[in-house]
Write a structure and sequence with these properties.
The complex is a heterodimer of chains A (362) and B (129). By secondary structure, chain A is of the alpha+beta class. Chain A contains eight helices and 20 strands. Chain B has one domain: OB fold (Dihydrolipoamide Acetyltransferase, E2P). Chain B has three helices and nine strands, in the order βββαβββββαβα. The chains are: A alpha+beta (362), B alpha+beta (129).
Chain lengths: 362, 129
């Protein structure tokens, strides 16, 4: 039987405010990044299809939040974030990576500008403590307050073609458009509504007080949102070719190799910008590309590419009904349409570099 | 997905496989518990006809969305039939693990090996441990 994902062996696992809700819904709970999270309810394929065709709801309360505020907030975030934070208007959302000086990726994050001098950065659960320490270590003389807000928010992702109308039905005012954020009253409680997601579908993410999350969850489920677990979140994001930190992103790879040059604005002088500029001018030997298997089987993260390279994400695509994934390949074999082979547990399986994204919503 | 069930007429292997004995031929598959742990099955790679399988050894793999898992032979023998329907409908392993989701039929090499298998009650008890 499959082994559960690695858990932090020494620290007790944390539970989100929706833990009992998940149990009551029949979820299978697994350890994930130090949390006990629902990996699936009735089945990954049904949950995946609900998100592609209607609306699904995910508990992503394990994600962390760091608030940066004060007169020096913009200047400070410019140092840490790879993207041009000056382009972020109040109410806007922006994707970026945090880099080390050598360009290695520490985390990938969304940052929301909540007010003129107030920003909220969403971190990956496994990286949150390290990100927070990174922020604090680089405060220097910047006039900023850095506040760990991870305990203050539950986070629900409502995703799918019917996601917006499902949330809108219990919202106080029109929801913010894609890539923006606004405070709204949802089912009678205050929430930050963000037009973002990790599925390749339209939808919103809701940040709200942990104690309020179960009733809002139930209200959305009553209106047709289908509970979906981490397994479906992974197949959905892989189809959409969104990176998963720890798989496709790590300190071993820079953003250029990872295909994230678009969110790096070296002219801002962020930490790691010199290394990123160098990589842009002299491309590193490998590149992260999406692929499809051209025969049966499923390649998994860690499988070696014959002749060099490695699969960093691999799963079965419920939408395309073939095995798909992301792999670092040598540059000369990274062009769309290039055939290559993967060592899948000792058997060579044919694959082909595919267009990004593997799935695009109609 | 089907409800948990463990038919009393089958013999069980601790690696979550079952065997239905019919004379010197046995049908193999994976248990409800195994398919539930795997989740949605998407590929089943059948062994070749004529292949020899050995008790307690993997004879093939079954692939779900989430993971791949070895399938263990509860008994030794020669594969005389494979469930070709699983090529197009691997979900039968989830929907009907003891019926349409059967995997192979094997001509038994040593029927006395059944002594090493569990009956339903012993297998179910092992799941609670």
């Amino acid at each position: 039987m499959p082994a559960p994902p690695d858990a932090a062996a020494t620290t007790p696992l944390r539970r989100t405010s929706l833990y009992q809700t998940h149990l009551a819904a029949g979820a299978r709970i697994v350890p994930f990044a130090g949390w006990e999270m629902p990996v699936q309810y009735e089945g990954v394929i049904a949950e995946h299809r609900a998100v592609r065709t209607a609306v699904g709801i995910f508990d992503v309360s394990h994600m962390g939040q760091i608030e940066t505020r004060g007169p020096g907030a913009l200047e400070f975030l410019h140092r840490l974030s790879s993207n041009d934070v000056a382009k972020l208007d109040v109410g806007g959302a922006q994707y970026s990576v945090l880099c080390r000086e050598d360009g290695g990726v520490l985390d990938d994050c969304f940052t929301y500008r909540l007010a003129g001098e107030r920003y909220l950065t969403i971190t990956n659960a496994a990286n949150h403590a390290q990100d927070l320490a990174w922020f604090v270590a680089h405060r220097d003389l910047h006039e900023v307050e850095i506040v760990d807000r991870a305990g203050d928010y539950a986070m629900l992702a409502v995703q799918g073609p019917l996601a917006r109308e499902t949330v809108q039905a219990i919202a106080s005012a029109p929801l913010p458009p894609r890539m923006s954020v606004a405070e709204r009253v949802i089912d009678g409680v205050g929430a930050l509504v963000c037009g973002t997601g990790y599925t390749g579908e339209d939808g919103v993410e809701l940040l709200l007080a942990p104690d309020d999350a179960p009733t809002v969850w139930e209200a959305l489920v009553r209106r047709g949102a289908r509970p979906a677990g981490l397994a479906a979140r992974d197949t959905l994001r892989t189809e959409a070719c969104y990176h998963l930190y720890g798989n496709d992103l790590s300190t071993e790879h820079g953003p250029i190799e990872a295909g994230l040059g678009w969110c790096c604005k070296e002219d801002t002088g962020f930490i790691g910008s010199a290394a990123v500029r160098e990589a842009r001018e002299h491309p590193p030997p490998q590149r992260l590309v999406p692929f499809k298997l051209t025969e049966r089987g499923v390649a998994r993260a860690g499988d070696a590419v014959i002749g060099g390279g490695q699969v960093t994400s691999g799963t079965f695509s419920p939408t395309l009904e073939v095995a798909i994934g992301l792999a670092y390949l040598p540059l000369d074999r990274a062009a769309v349409g290039t055939a290559f082979e993967i060592d899948v547990r000792g058997t060579r399986r044919g694959a082909m570099v595919a267009e990004r994204p593997l799935y695009q919503r109609p | 997905m089907s409800e948990a069930s463990y038919p009393p007429e089958l013999l069980y292997h601790p690696e979550h496989d079952w065997a239905r004995i019919d004379g010197d031929v046995a049908t193999f598959g994976i248990t409800w518990h195994a398919q539930d742990a795997l989740g949605d099955v998407v590929f089943f790679d059948p062994p070749a006809l004529g292949a020899q399988v050995s008790q307690n050894e993997p004879y093939t793999e079954v692939e779900s969305v989430k993971a791949v898992s070895d399938v263990f032979a509860p008994l030794s023998g020669e594969v005389i039939e494979v469930n070709s329907e699983l090529a197009d409908k691997p979900e039968l392993v989830n929907d009907d693990p003891y019926g349409g989701g059967w995997m192979v039929k094997v001509r038994l090499a040593d029927p006395s090996e059944t002594g090493g298998l569990l009956d339903r009650d012993a297998y179910v008890a092992s799941l609670d441990e």
